[in-house]
Amino acid sequence: MKLIHVLGLIPFIGMLGGLPFANQVHTFVLGLPFLLFWIVLWVVLTSAVMAIVNYIDPANRKEGTE
């Protein structure tokens, strides 16, 4: 399995796999319930991970100037 595929799985596992553990009613982070904070955090982290995937993907590299 290539590194870009593993990196693509990280947001999926973090968002869906972590929801049962993040589902707490009385915990607040930055004024948000922890579950909402968890989802917002993974939306931001997904953007960062996909930027890394875009950077290291060989299909996005330019072979030369045209």
Spell out the blueprint of helices and strands.
Blueprint: H1 3-17, H2 19-22, E1 28-29, E2 32-33, H3 34-56
Helix pairs in contact: 1-3
Summarize the structure.
The chain is built from three helices and two strands; from the N terminus they run H-H-E-E-H.
Task: Fill in the keyword field for this structure.
single chain, 66 residues, mainly alpha, two-stranded antiparallel sheet, 2 strands, 64% helix
Provide a descriptive summary of the structure in words.
The chain has 66 residues and is mainly α. A hairpin with a 2-residue loop joins strand 1 and strand 2. The longest helix is centred in the last third of the chain and has 23 residues. The chain is 64% helix and 6% strand. The mean pLDDT is 83. The chain starts with a helix and ends in a 10-residue tail after the last helix. It has a two-stranded antiparallel ribbon with strand order 1-2. The protein has three helices and two strands, in the order H-H-E-E-H.
